[in-house]
């Protein structure tokens, strides 16, 4: 019988339950997948705590890779035996098997292993839209990226270097600083002992950066604003430390006519053609070895509670996966 992690109430990691589940056959437009690897992402903590709403009881998890075992009526783009990966709703990736809509799947090239796919589909597509869709960055530009040693950060910095973009990265420790530097960061700021905005001004000759990419949220928001050049853009794409408080638009004017956006991956992969374009470029870099996906934490799926504790404690470097 299939197994899955489910939760019946919001709260800490202890609400996650390892259970047997019935999967059944795929309906029209659906497929049944046998997972080979499942991704672990901070977004899942948001669902578990209730920051992101979910109808309870619920499965959890938004990213996995595996093999199609059965195809429902009306599915023409996939067949039994296809290697696939996916990220996004519906929840339920923390499972050995599942039925889900075929429209959310991405075919996985033979040159990319399942664990690599589970570790990079969400993170890689996030890096893809941040670099290729948000702002017209050019070779020689310098940007600030928080959490530079995280899963998104390590992919982002490697990709930015390919594009000739200089990255100033922030990290929490010397160990993470070394990792970020090795993956392409031109400058690394250890935020626990350095003032981020002051260091950014020093590095940029007092000008600031045109774009800040901030996945941390509450604790980094002010430093992010203060690191921007006049008419700069703050891309607030995550809330790892909690949501950003309400912002008075006048504050943006007083700090240099700044721009603020809060993008979501779902809106950049909703269109199948755009998703294919973003994924194709990502997969091409990974297959060619130009971008390396670092998997530094492996868990069994039944260890989801501990995995969430480690993720919340900031113990992770690079990507984390549940392996079978």
Automatic annotation (TrEMBL):
Superkingdom in the source lineage: Bacteria
Record's keyword terms, sorted: NADP, Oxidoreductase
PROSITE patterns in alphabetical order: QOR_ZETA_CRYSTAL
UniProt-listed InterPro entries: ADH-like_C (IPR013149), ADH-like_N (IPR013154), ER (IPR020843), GroES-like_sf (IPR011032), NAD(P)-bd_dom_sf (IPR036291), QOR-like (IPR047618), Quin_OxRdtase/zeta-crystal_CS (IPR002364)
Gene3D superfamilies according to UniProt: Medium-chain alcohol dehydrogenases, catalytic domain, NAD(P)-binding Rossmann-like Domain
Entries under Pfam families matching the protein: ADH_N, ADH_zinc_N
Protein name: Quinone oxidoreductase
Native organism: Rhodococcus pseudokoreensis
